[in-house]
Each structure stands twice: as structure tokens, then as C-alpha cells.
Design the sequence.
């Protein structure tokens, strides 16, 4: 970590790959261990999109694994944490039974939350939330940025993240919304069309022209000031996924960036939030915006 009176305090949490970056995030946020770990496959996002609120509620880091075998470094981090239970997100097709068997052989309790598709998995995760909230988030189920940008806020407020098709509300999502009074829809008309939006109870849409403006709209709706911001690439899902729970844990927004660029919307958001400390998630080849952050925060 480096700091100066002229530049923002910037920390980077990264490893050689997405699995190791998730581990570094876990080590930073759960230095003293965790009883439970949430585990997701590392190269597909659907099952994990809805997982942040549950992980936050359980004070559990999200770790990643290969879908066919338990990634060794991840196994080592589970051991360091002293975890007793691993919650696997996704069906047997997403995270194979061999992974679960290996966890059991290590003396861990396991629970699998997986439906026939991403929509049922999100519904099942929502059922696991111990929350009195009558609000829910609905996001497009076939891409990741909007759901991940809202994840820290959904986590903190105990709101489930439910998924939809662009032009049809899945039955599983309808069922999950049965007792919901207010729905926050993230994403524009192109990903959650009006006929879907109009079916949602007490709906409000947070959207922009692209993923970065949408993320800025989400942050602006939930936050008016944040001393620290977590910065992840908006081009891939893994670092934002595993970082979302840490951001929630530290009451901070998740800012999306291109590799070495911040959108004008994100820059304006950072200025409005008066953010002075930043944690970059992932290596310099993924996100490298220190210079832009410095220019924004120099007084």
C-alpha cells in the first residue's frame, strides 16, 4: 500500500489468476478466518450472480474453483480460514460432484444451492436469505455487470438478487417476488424490457446507456458519500463477484472500470462520493487506473 498527501491511498488485491485474486480478497477481508465459505465455478457467472447477499449474511468469502476438480489454492484457503462448511452455488453440471466429494473427504460439511437453471438457482438462494426485507433486485440473467454493481447494496440491505430474461419474466422469479413490495431493476430497456418491468411490484429502474453509466446510477442511488471504493474491471465478472462481498463488508461501493480508463460517469460518481481510498481488484493487466484516480482526487 502506498500513500501520499497528493495521491489517493491505493491498495491492490490480486493474484496470478482469478482463483488467486479471490483468495487475496478472502485473506484481506477474513484475516481471522470464517466458519462458512461460498464456492462458485470460476469461468461462468450465472449461478454466482445472486450469491453476494447470502455470502454477506453468513460473513463468508466467495471463492472460486474449477468446475471439475477443487482448485488446490482454493482448498488451501478454505483450510486457512478454518471453515467448517462450504456452500456450493450451482447444480451438478455447474460444479461437479467430484468437487463436493473432495470437500467432504476433507471433513467439511457441504450444501449445494442449485436449480435447473440460473433463474431457479437465484430463487433458491433468495429462499436461504434470513431477511425481513420486502425489496428485491431484478437483473438481466445473461450478463453480469448490472447485477454485480448492485451486489454490495443488495447484500447490506438483505435484498435478494433475482434474474430475468430480457423479454420474459421466468416463473421462478415470479414465485420469488410473491411477497415483494418494491423492486429495483438494474439495467435498461434492452436487457429488461418494458413488458417485464411492468410486471414487477413497486418497480424502479436504475439504468444508463452502458454498464458503466448503469453502475454509476446504482451507486448514486444508494450512496452519497464513500471514503473507500473497490475498483474492478467491468469486462469480466470474477474479480467483481468475489470483491462485492468485501465491498459490502466495508460499506463501500464497487466501481467498474475499463482496463486503464474510467468512464465520465464513474469519474463524476467518484468526485460526488468524495472517495479518497481505493482498492483495486485484480492485476495491472486487468485494471490499471491509478493515474486517473490520482487526477480525480488531487485537491
Sequence:
Amino acid at each position: 500500500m502506498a500513500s501520499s498527501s497528493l495521491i489517493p491511498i491505493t491498495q491492490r488485491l490480486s493474484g496470478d489468476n482469478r482463483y488467486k485474486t479471490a483468495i487475496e480478497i478472502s485473506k484481506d477481508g477474513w484475516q481471522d478466518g470464517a466458519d462458512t465459505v461460498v464456492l462458485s465455478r470460476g469461468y461462468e457467472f450465472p449461478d454466482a450472480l445472486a450469491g453476494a447477499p447470502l455470502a454477506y449474511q453468513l460473513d463468508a468469502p466467495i471463492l472460486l474453483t474449477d468446475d471439475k476438480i477443487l482448485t488446490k489454492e482454493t482448498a488451501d484457503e478454505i483450510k486457512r480460514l478454518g471453515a467448517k462448511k462450504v456452500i456450493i452455488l450451482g447444480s451438478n453440471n455447474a460444479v461437479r460432484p467430484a468437487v463436493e466429494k473432495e470437500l467432504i473427504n476433507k471433513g467439511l460439511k457441504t450444501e449445494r444451492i442449485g436449480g435447473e437453471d440460473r433463474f431457479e438457482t437465484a430463487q433458491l438462494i433468495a429462499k436461504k436469505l434470513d431477511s425481513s426485507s420486502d425489496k428485491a433486485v431484478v437483473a438481466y440473467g445473461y450478463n453480469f455487470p448490472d447485477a454485480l454493481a448492485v451486489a454490495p447494496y443488495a447484500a447490506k440491505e438483505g435484498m435478494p438478487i433475482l434474474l430475468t430474461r430480457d423479454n420474459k419474466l421466468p416463473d421462478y422469479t415470479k414465485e420469488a417476488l410473491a411477497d415483494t413490495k418494491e423492486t429495483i431493476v438494474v439495467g435498461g430497456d434492452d436487457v429488461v424490457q418494458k413488458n417485464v418491468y411492468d410486471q414487477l411490484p413497486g418497480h424502479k429502474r436504475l439504468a444508463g446507456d452502458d454498464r458503466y453509466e448503469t453502475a454509476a446510477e446504482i451507486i448514486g442511488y444508494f450512496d452519497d458519500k464513500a471514503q473507500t471504493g473497490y475498483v474492478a474491471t467491468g469486462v469480466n465478472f470474477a474479480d467483481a463477484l468475489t470483491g462485492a462481498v468485501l465491498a459490502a463488508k466495508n460499506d463501500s461501493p464497487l466501481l467498474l472500470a475499463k482496463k486503464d480508463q474510467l468512464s465520465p460517469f464513474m469519474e463524476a460518481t467518484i468526485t460526488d462520493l468524495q472517495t479518497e481510498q481505493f482498492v483495486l481488484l485484480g492485476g495491472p493487466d486487468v485494471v490499471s487506473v491509478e493515474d486517473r484516480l490520482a487526477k480525480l482526487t488531487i485537491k
